[in-house]
Amino acid sequence: MRSLKNILVTGGAGIIGCNFIRVLLNKTPEFSGRIINLDALTYAGNAASLEDIEKQFGGRRYFFEQGSICDRSLVESLFSKYDIDTVAHFAAESHVDRSIFGPETFVKTNVMGTFTLLDVARNFWQEARSVGLPGAGAPDIRQDVLFHHISTDEVYGSLGETGAFSETTPYNPRSPYSASKAASDHLVMAYSHTYGLPVTLSNCSNNYGPYQFPEKFIPLSILHILEGKALPVYGDGKNIRDWLYVEDHNRAVWLILQRGVPGEKYNIGGENERENINLLHSLIDTVSKKADLDPEKVRSTISYVKDRPGHDRRYAINCSKVKTELGWKPAFGFEQGLEKTVDWYLANSEWIEGIRSGEYRSWVEKNYGARGA
Ligand SMILES: NC(=O)c1ccc[n+]([C@@H]2O[C@H](COP(=O)([O-])OP(=O)(O)OC[C@H]3O[C@@H](n4cnc5c(N)ncnc54)[C@H](O)[C@@H]3O)[C@@H](O)[C@H]2O)c1
Fold first, then answer.
1. To the nearest whole number, what is the mean pLDDT of the chain?
2. 29 CA to middle of ligand 1, Å?
3. Which residues are catalytic?
4. Domain total for the chain?
5. pLDDT of residue 83 exceeding 70
6. Is 24 strand, coil or helix?
7. Is residue 1 part of a domain?
8. pTM reported for the whole predicted model
C-alpha cells in the first residue's frame, strides 16, 4: 500500500473534491497526511463548503491555495512548497450545457490544465540522479508517487438499450465537455507510456450528494420543487444516466490512491440506471414527503423543454474491475443516497442562500483576508 503524505487535491471546492477532502480528514483514520487544495474558485467552486474543515484542520493538515491549474509557476511552487507525492485531480469545467455554449474554457482547463499538472509532476518527480544527463534517454521517475485523474463515463459516448461501458470500450466523446475530458484522459495515459509517470485514471458515472452546485439536475430539481417553480426536463425525459452517491465515488478514489495499479484505469458506477423523468418523480415524492407538499400538484409543474443538442441517450457502467481488484462496493443504495441528499439541501439553506445572493464568491476574502488564501 502506498504511503500518502502530501496530497494535492485540485478542484477541492467543487462537489466531488470537497466531499473527498471531508471523507479523508473526517472519516479515514488510516490517512494521517496533509491535503493541499488548489482551486481557482470559478462560479462552481465554493470555499464555504469547506468552512468546517478549515476551522478544524486549517494550517495543520489542510491548506487552501487559490489559483488555476493552468498557472505553471504556481503549480511548480506548490509541488516544492508542500513536497507533493500524490495528485488527486478533480478540477475541471464540468457542466455539459455550459460546454455547448462556451467550449473554450473547457479546452483550457480540462486539456491545458491537466497537461500543466502532468508536466510539472513529471519534472518534480524525476529521480535526482538522472536529471540533466545528456544522451541518457528519458530520466527515471520516482515510482512511490501517484497522479490520479478523475474522469467521466461520458468519454465513451452513448449506449443503445443494452450493454455497459467497460474499461476497454473505445472512446467516442460527443460533447465539448466529454471531448475535453477524453483529451485529458489520453494525455494522462500518454505520460504513463512515454515517461513512466505513475498514473491511474477513473471514469465515473453521474454523482449526486451534498454541496452540488444547483445548476445540476438533482439539486436544481430539489430547489425548484421547494419553491414551486417549473421543473424542466429535456426532450422526452427518457435519457438514462447511472447515479452514484458522491461519498461512494470518493471511497473508490481513496482505494485507487492506496492500491491502484499504475497505468490502469477503473470504471466507477452505482449500477443505478434511471430515466431522467423517473428520477424526477422519485425526487418529487421524497421532497414532498419531507416538506409536506402535495406531490400531484408538484408533478403538474413538470415541463418538457427542447432537448440538449447532441444529448447522449444512455450511459451505463460496468464497474466489476474496481470491485474485484480493489474490493470496492457502494455503501449507499439509491433511495438512501437520495434521502440523504434531500435532507442536506433542506438543512443547509444558508449554503444555498450564499450561492443565490452571490455572497459565496467573497467567502475567501472575508475569511482569509487580504492574502487571498
Ligand atoms: N459531477 C459528476 O457527476 C461527475 C461525474 C464523473 C466525473 N466527474 C469529474 O469529476 C471532477 C469533479 O467534478 P465536480 O462535479 O466536482 O465539478 P464541479 O464543477 O462541482 O467543481 C469543479 C471545481 O474545479 C474548480 N476549477 C475549475 N477550473 C479550475 C482551474 N482552472 N484551476 C483550478 N480549479 C478549477 C472549480 O472552482 C470547482 O471548485 C471533474 O473532473 C469531472 O469531470 C464529475
1. 94
2. 26
3. 153-154, 177
4. 1
5. yes
6. helix
7. no
8. 0.96
